[in-house]
Amino acid sequence: MSRVHWTAIPTEHLAMVYRPTEKTEARKAAMRQRILDASLLLVSTGGFSAVTINAVAKDAGIATGAVYKHFDSKAQLCAEVFRNATEKELAVVRENALAEGVPSVRLLKAIEAFSARAIRGRRLAYALIAEPVDTLVDTERLRYRLAYANIFQKLVEDGIESGEFPQQAASVSAAALVGVISEALVGPLTWSAGSENAIDKTDLIRSIQAFCLRAVAVRDPAFT
Fold first, then answer.
1. 65-to-54, 78, 81 alpha-carbon distances in Å
2. CA distance 121 to 128
């Protein structure tokens, strides 16, 4: 029986083998991000309805086929754009809601931060909050509403524990807060080509804050 002789590959040769793969992966990641950036810009100016594979390819400066190498469909692309954009907003709410300090103040700051950013980027905000979308994007929207609710639930629980908020079903209150904030913004954020309603930013945010604070801070005889 003949023996098989294994020859060790020098370390420098292994590096040469892996280096092209690393460069290839880096190029793929850069191209994917380029596509996502172009898509987000389209959503920011025209909503998800403005996103087409042809438009994305044109704005990214690539061939249409290159988009399909990274995303199987427009729906899949839009779902990832939604995830990326919403994660940034979620981080802002989390930072304000779960920071150190009095729960009621944290609640007001979280509402102000979220609302102010929504008003500043109203077309994108409307697309994320209320625009009719594909099922894949709608699934992401529901997932992130739950993520927001989880943040507010922790805030309400902190308020109950500290004695600042009365006893209540924290999970229900949190879900209601998410609904109130979103619905209160939908009307003012509604956008149509050539027509943008003026928004009194200060009054709108203060009204949302006041309603939400009353909702979690007023004592209900049913829980006493």
1. 9, 17, 19
2. 11
Read off the pTM: 0.84
What does the DSSP 8-state code read for residue 56?
Answer: H
Tokens in use for 134?
Answer: 């594909």
The single-letter code of the amino acid at 24 is: T
- What values do phi and psi take at 69, rounded to 5? -70, -20
Q: In whole angstroms, what is the distance from residue 49 CA to residue 75 CA? A: 11
Average pLDDT over residues 76-84: 96
DSSP element (H, E) containing 72: none
Cα–Cα separations (whole angstroms), residue 99 to 103, 126, 159, 167: 9, 27, 13, 22
Are the beta carbons of 197 and 92 closer than 8 angstroms?
Answer: no
